[in-house]
Structures are given as structure tokens and as C-alpha cells.
Amino acid sequence: MxxxxxxxxxxxxxxxxxxxxxxxxxxxxxxxxxxxxVPGIMYLGGFAGFASSYFYEKNAADPKGWICVLLALTAAIxxxxxxxxxxxxxxxxxxxxxxxxxxxxxTFGMGVANFFGVFxxxxxxxxxxxxxxxxxxxxxxxxxxxxxIISKTVFPYGFLVYAAIIIAIVLHYILNKTRVGLNLRxxxxxxxxxxxxxxxxxxxxxxxxxxxxxLSGIGGLYYVLDYNQGIWATTGQIEALGxxxxxxxxxxxxxxxxxxxxxxxxxxxxxxxxxLPSILGIKVASYITDLIQMVPYVVTIVVLIVxxxxxxxxxxxxESLGLSYFREER
Length: 330
Description:
The structure is a single chain. The protein is mainly alpha-helical. The chain has one domain (2-325): Orthogonal Bundle (ABC transporter involved in vitamin B12 uptake, BtuC), CATH 1.10.3470. The protein is built from 15 helices and two strands. The protein has helices at 2-29, 38-59, 65-93, 98-121, 130-136, 149-153, 159-177, 179-189, 191-196, 201-227, 238-251, 256-270, 272-280, 286-292, 295-310; strands at residues 126-128, 231-233. A two-stranded antiparallel ribbon has the order 1-2. Helix 3 crosses helix 5. The model has no long low-confidence stretch (mean pLDDT 89). Keywords: Cell membrane, Membrane, Transmembrane, Transmembrane helix.
């Protein structure tokens, strides 16, 4: 039982990172834009959030935790939305190839974050923002201590874990129950028809891409200031987690509610290599461990194959996904 609890406690924070990334990409892809720059955007969000809180802690006479949180969130969302705006300008206004632009944005985001990160590290391999970490990882009073096993498994996390679930529910409601969501899905399915119906296609694509980038950036912020204990280092996992978030979008068939359980399932599968031997009471060779770490990606491929064969409309990506819209051709 103790191994199972430890497994869950590891999986939920891990899943939260990719949940933010996948919700951002779902929002973007619902507009018909395919942004493969998610890893770079998460890098930008993580670095901007860390840098703002780090310099505040370093220079303020009496730094406050809530100001750290506010600064970090604002900086992370602003930086990642700027990345989304760059992508939008290149692919919507200039109609550049979305696949190439997204990959370039990943390289750009990683490069910018690591370049400026060198000045913060100042020759060290890592540095930390302890007040920001303490603030982001602060547990909910009472619920984290008084409910036995529920407190141990459900409430030992920082507020962004629960915010991710709430955002997924709100996003599901907006996409499926509001006129804005209906218009956005119409733009993603057939922008020509949406344009003829009076919907501003460019506005919806820009907004969805920038808001989606902002959500993805929060995932990078959560990784650095909570999951990674407020540490910015020369090595990190953000890029790999960004690609896993993109895979999660396919796994969840572009549904925000599926991103909740899907992200936690990916977290369980990712940490399977560490807990499976102890749960089964066996020793596992190192190459088996490497194979087990591939499971989330293999599961995504299997789901993609199954979905393509079933051909149900609700499980398919938006019809215009990855295609530039030329108004003159409608």
C-alpha cells in the first residue's frame, strides 16, 4: 500500500505539468492551428516565472510569498503568450508552414531560456528560488493533514494541481456549451464556412493560440517552481514533457476532461519503471527500465491507430488542423 501511495504522489504532480501543456495545445488545435512549439513555450514560461521570482527574492528587503506567486504567474503567462503571438503572426498572418514554425519555436524558446539562464546561474550548475518554491508548493490547511489516506494522496500538493483540474472543466464548458466555443470549433473545422457566417477567423485563431500558449507556459512554471523544487538548472526535463503534452492531446482525442485522467495515467506510466519492481518484489534489468519508460508514447500510438480505424467524428482532430486559411480560396 505504501508503494502505491508513493506512486500516486509522484504521478499527480508529473501529470499536472503535461495537463497544462495539453490543455494549451487543445485550445490552440481547436482553432485549426497545429503548434509544435509547446516544449519551447513551456521553457519560456518556466524561465520567465523563475527569473521574476528569483530577482524579486534577491533584491526585495522583505520578500512576500504571495508577491512571488503573482510575479511568477504574470511573467510566465506573458512570456509564453508572446511565444504564441510570434507563432500566430508567422502562421496566420504570413501563412508560414505550421509544422516548421512550431519546431523552430521549440528551438527558439529553449535557446532563449538557456541563454539568459546562463547569466542567472553565473557559472553554477543550478540555482534556486526557495521562497517561490515554498509558496507554490504550500499545502491546503486541514485537508492535507486531517483526512488520513485522502490527505496523503489527494491533498499534499500545491494549488496549481487543483487549478489545472478546474481549468480543464472550465475549458470543456467553454468549448462545448458557449457560443465562443462553438465559433472556435467552427473555425477549426471549416474556416471558410465560419468566415462566410460572419465569424472573425483571424481573431479566433490568434486568441486561441495565444491563450493556449499561456496555459502551456503555466505547465513550465509549475515544473520549475514546484515539481523541481524551485530550481533552475543547466539540465532539465521541460522539453521531453512538452512533447509528452503534445502526445497527450492525441491520447485524449482533443477533449479537456480526458486530459485530467489522461495526464495522471501518463504520470503513472512514466513512474512505472521505479515502482513496478518494488510492487512485484522483483529485480528489473536496466534495459527493461528503459523500455518501460517508453510506455506512454507506445500507448499514444496505439490510441491513434484505434481512433483512425473507428473514424468517429468526435474522436477526430479538427478538419483544418495544420492548414493555413486563404480567404481568397473559400
